[in-house]
Amino acid sequence: MKRLFIILFIFNAAPALRAQQLPGDLPVLIQQSFNYFPQFKELGQAIDVEQQRILLAKSAGLPSVQATGSYNYLNPVSEISLPAGPAFQIMPKSNYKASVNGSYTLLDFGVVKASVDRAKAGLQYAKDNLDYNRNQMAAQVSGIYYQITYLKAAIQIQNSVIDFLESNKKDTEIKYKNGDALKYDVLSIQSSIDQESNRKIDLQTSLNKQYILMEYTTGTKMITEPKGFNFPAEGLEDGLEQALEQAWNYNPEFKLLKDKIAQAETELAFSKTGGKPVLSLNAGTGYTNGYAPDIDQFRYNYTAGVTLSIPIYQGGKAKKQVRLAQSQVEQSRLARESLNNTFRSNIRQVLSDMASNRSSLVHAAAQVAEAKEAQKLAQSRYKNGIGTNLELTSASTNVQKAELTKLQYEYQLCLARVEMARLTGVKYW
């Protein structure tokens, strides 16, 4: 019984699980583009590079140990002559040395810390750069997705127009046989059918190109139908100031600019350490010859001490680096003001587009209803022999125009929402 319950549960849950993984679902397609597009692998590798830079910067503050071995032949060498005996050498001609030496920085006045902070700022920039490119890619995939939605809906409108004309062509042919219509009427309707069929072919060609572009971007073919113009994000029409605040906090482009300012500030802090002294501990041990009285014998030795290095003159390099870093910080801060103005203008335009398209949709829906009603009347008049073929064709054209206009407003409103999500940094995937 328990096994049967599990089987029934899996069977009932399968459609829901499958619905969450539809290849035609927009968030799924966006995620697939992140996993497939080669640029994101490169950006991920850039993050790894910056992480290695942090480890490299930290290693400058760790102890350094090295083993050395050397041989030097020296001739002539110093000799001491004694009155009562022969002369003897105070150093060997053949000098051998094998040692292990180590050093450790005791005090660097913040040099290593500034270097690590600079590397961490680079890592944060690499991460936000990945988010920036994901935000751009999501907007691109969304644009393709809703272009496919628009083209498929436009093709459906074309199909309905062609079906309507085909139906009226049959009625006209019957009238022509009965002598109630002219051959011109039949040819005129056929001409309209051919014209609308060519338009459908153009739309289908554009649709096929968008499918190819989607496959290029995501590495997969769209199997299922798009789900209309329902954009999976909310709170996109809260107003200019709210949208701008959202952009300041979440848009990756603002984050990148903040990262540039942080990088410039860490570069400034690092440049200020250029003229700082360094106190280090040095020690070594090993074997060497040259010790009296038997200067050729290998003997064990060791050494230990501290070294204080104080830069005195470097051609003004440190001061020049500081001035350069200060200029870079100021440049980054000025760029923030320019970006604020650009985003404010873009957000205002998108909000205006959204409001305009939403208002136009109301009138477009009314126009569609009116055009369809007029089409019914024209078709009825034509069947009853009161109306003309011109009235019928004109009514059909008006319905087509009204439906395409309404579809265009829906498409433009959806694209405006996509753009608003991109500007405000909303992650809808």
TrEMBL record:
GO terms for cellular component: cell outer membrane; efflux pump complex. InterPro entries: OMP_efflux, TolC-like. Keywords: Cell outer membrane, Membrane, Signal, Transmembrane, Transmembrane beta strand, Transport. This is Outer membrane protein TolC. It holds the Pfam family OEP. It is found in: Cell outer membrane. Its main location: membrane. It comes from Pedobacter nutrimenti. Residues 1-19 form the signal peptide. Belongs to the outer membrane factor (OMF) (TC 1.B.17) family. GO terms for molecular function: efflux transmembrane transporter activity; porin activity.
